[in-house]
Amino acid sequence: MKKKSVVRKRKTSARPATRRKASVSKKPHAPLLAPVRGADRRTVGHVTLEVGRAGAARVKRMTYPPGYRWSKDMKAIVGTALCMHAHVGFLVQGEVHVEYADGCVVEFAAPQVVAIDPGHDAWVVGKQPVVLIEFDFESDTVRRLGMPDAHRHA
Ligand SMILES: [Zn+2]
To answer: Ligand 1 centroid to 9 CA: how many Å?
Structure first.
């Protein structure tokens, strides 16, 4: 009998802690920019990449700062005229401007699914960091995601 009443008291005292947790989670961007648990984290050309494995795929959170532009920040590191990666994923925050070699322009604004063909320049629009969740298969990304190997018109 006495033990049961002690248990009840503990349950009652745990309630305020639950309320505090709920109010913390209302901060809109806290989990969006906090370090990804269990992911490999590195920064290349001002872009923060956090990479985790899921089956045969990689899941990446890419964070691009305001002012970022591929041709300014990444081109010299990568050594190609344009970004030759396909990007498939979900834009969680921010706006991205994409330009292909033939002059085609695509604008993305969160929340939005993103599919960008290889052969592009891209930059962050506005003052918010861009947060993009991407899926890839490393060197086999284009084939396994069914993306074109370059931007072209049918
Ligand atoms: Zn085009």
So the answer is: 67
